[in-house]
Task: structure prediction
Amino acid sequence: MHSPANSPTQHHNMLLEQVGKVRTLIDDLSACTDETAALIARLQIRSSTLHSAIALPLDAAPLLLADFVVRYIEHVPDFIEAIHAITSDAGIQEQVDPLLKVALDYFLHPPELVRGHSTLQVLLAEAYLAHRLLEEINDRFITLCGSPLAPMDTTRANIVAHELIGEPFAIELDQAVLFSADILLTEHNFKGAAFDRFFAQHREHGWSVELSRWPCLAADRSIFLNFDGQK
Result:
């Protein structure tokens, strides 16, 4: 017997296939040495004008920031895969996957807003959109349900990315994220017994199991690994 066209298994496989496509896209574009050299040259200029809270030694700043950019971009599919697995285990993935699909679509179908820049600049903007959308969704679930959808906090990483992207472009990206979050949370229903159990469990027991299974969710620790001891 064939599975229904929109069966949970097909949804699961389609989303994981999209995660794989995004990983391949990121790997292919990040491997371009000319793009990496251009990024480091750009960061050499930007590093002298960053907010004082981002304190790095001037001689090492461009390489450290380039490493941050690569980690920040590469973590998007890792985060999405982790959230998908967590919500699948809880039986709420059909309601959550539309949120994750929008984050993936920033890479697979880039909005007009991010076009016209160099390859790694586009990847950074797409990653910023995805990270900010997940951050915004998490914040709204904390307000609505007393718990985030996933135990990651990318606030610090997003502030650094905002600085590297620069204004007014980063502000335009923020506005696009808020618009998307408003639409998603209006169009999709995030209620029901499974949702109630999911949030009640994590309000009571925390996220230690998920963090041990998905260490990438400790976002600041993993993205900022090479900043340790540099400040």
Summary: Residues 61-89 form the longest helix (29 residues). The chain is about 70% helix and 0% strand. The chain has a mean pLDDT of 83. Residues 8-227 form one domain.
